[in-house]
Structure of ABC transporter ATP-binding protein:
Amino acid sequence: MTPPTTARRTVLRHLRPALRSVRRSESAAARSAGRTTARRTVLRHLRPGPRSAGALAAATAAMTALPLVAPLITGRFVDEAIGGASTRHLTLIALGYLAVAVSAQAARVVTAWLASRLAWDGTNRLRERLAEHALGLDMAYHGRHTPGEMIERVDGDVVALADFVVAFLLDVVAGILLLVGVLVVVFTVDPRLGGVLLAYCVLIGFGMARAQRLAVPSAARSRAEHAALIGTLEERLAGAEDIRANGAGRHAVNRFHQAAAAWYHADLRAGKIGSGLLACTTVAFATGTAIVLGLAAWTQASGTLTVGTAVLLYQYTLMVRAPFERLIDQLRQYQTALAGVARIGDLLAERRTLPAPAFPRPLPATGPLSLHLDGVGFAYADDDEQVLSGITLKLAPGETLGLVGRTGSGKTTIARMVLRLYDPTEGGVRVGGLDLRDADPASVRRRICAVTQDVQLFAASVRDNLTLFGPPADDRRLRDILTGVGLGGWLAGLPDGLDTELGGVSAGEAQLLAFARAFLTDPGLVVLDEASSRLDPATERRVERSVDRLLTGRTAVLIAHRLSSLSRVDTIAVVDHGRVVEYGRREDLAADPGSRFARMLDMAGVRR
Ligand SMILES: Nc1ncnc2c1ncn2[C@@H]1O[C@H](COP(=O)(O)OP(=O)(O)OP(=O)(O)O)[C@@H](O)[C@H]1O
């Protein structure tokens, strides 16, 4: 008879594809709802407070109304000059014109200042929110997106949005208000000419709406290609050392060239469409001005219009051009900003795949922690192959386990499960008797610690690199810890001690700093991904000593790249294709000539 757990696993294996498809459609629906909410969130960040909104509205109204008055003054000046008014009177009108022109410019400056303050306040809030959100997303998300893409989202898109908000308020809102104002004044002066101007504006508006549809995809494409270029560049720069060391420079430059070429072509196309549209508008405006002038001349000849009014109409017709041109100019920025809002919205709609526990319980606060992986199965994405299957490992508090296996067998993935960087798709991970999914995330970070091969050091002080910008620790303790890992001499040679900004450190020093970080948190469970890089014998001895000290009195999972390091662990698990194919006490496995572990030791020439 099949044991019940095996039977359950068989049923689950058959149901897995169906479950995944249900999960996929559910998450697609949730994502789309999330996106709408996220876009609203983006716009909410940009909403000004009532006082700023009031000040901006007043400044915009002044900036629009004042230029409307100027042609009225010019018209009056012309008529009064023809009518033989005194020089003093004409000078007064001219001074009035000057005052209006200066005030209009002042109103524009104030509006620009208020608009950019508003835009930057809003977008800074948005940038903070985005950075916080992006940093809070799981490894699953960061594995799919390059840091360059993130930078483009958090900075590039937000700057485009800020630029657009300023331009929107200055050019679009003010432009539309000015257009309405001009139409109202021209209608009042001569309804027939007003009608002609209105028809002309409607035609231009309609043409622009169609043109917008042409410009949208090309602008979006150009921006997407730009993001891809930044991503490529960032990735190559981050890996510059490996690229150079392995002679992959040509390939890197080729890839960069391809990305740059794709952006160039996309931007060229967007530029061509933009310039084409601008040329069409210039022709349309010239035709419009000619029509209005012809009509004004005809009405003036029939005696119903004064010369001053004809001049006034001419000026208003010219005034219509600027807002339309600015509107067209804004179309591209609008598209860019719209695409940016969509992408920012998408980022904000990304949810953590590791749900926070409903009732978080802290891990035991002191002492070594037990670890139990119970039938753990895992795939990196819904459609991906299983990377781990049925992993069951049990460590008593203080016990150490060595994970061995070929490259790609799943050792790092097991470590990620233990650190709760991902949740298993099957089975569970229990630490200190508590399922990690129910454990308080803060206590997980405090009590479970990883020392990995890729030590990330920051351009910050030694102190901040040790505390990872967390609450300050006692200086004496930091010094003792550094001395303990063998960095006492190194610290003594630093000009500002713990406050020295970290410059270049060697691979060995970086490893030792990572151990110092681990000693500072004093974890109950340690995951140690042994560095495979070659260290000089002295540094290697210091690292070995730190490993020994770190493993003493703590539960540990050691991913060993050198079999000789395994002499310090209690149990061994051999991993192959995501399964534990051998698991037992180290001495027993080493003593059994038929075991895989013994064969591995023999092949590596390590004494059993
Ligand atoms: N972030 C990821 N997204 C998708 N697949 C991944 C990811 N990380 C690892 N994999 C895949 O999972 C499998 C197991 O990888 P893992 O890194 O756990 O192996 P490993 O035994 O630690 O290898 P190594 O000894 O080389 O570090 C591999 O097939 C790998 O390609």
In short: The pocket of adenosine-5'-triphosphate is lined by residues 143, 380, 387, 405, 407-413 (CB under 6 Å). Confidence is low (pLDDT under 50) at residues 1-5.
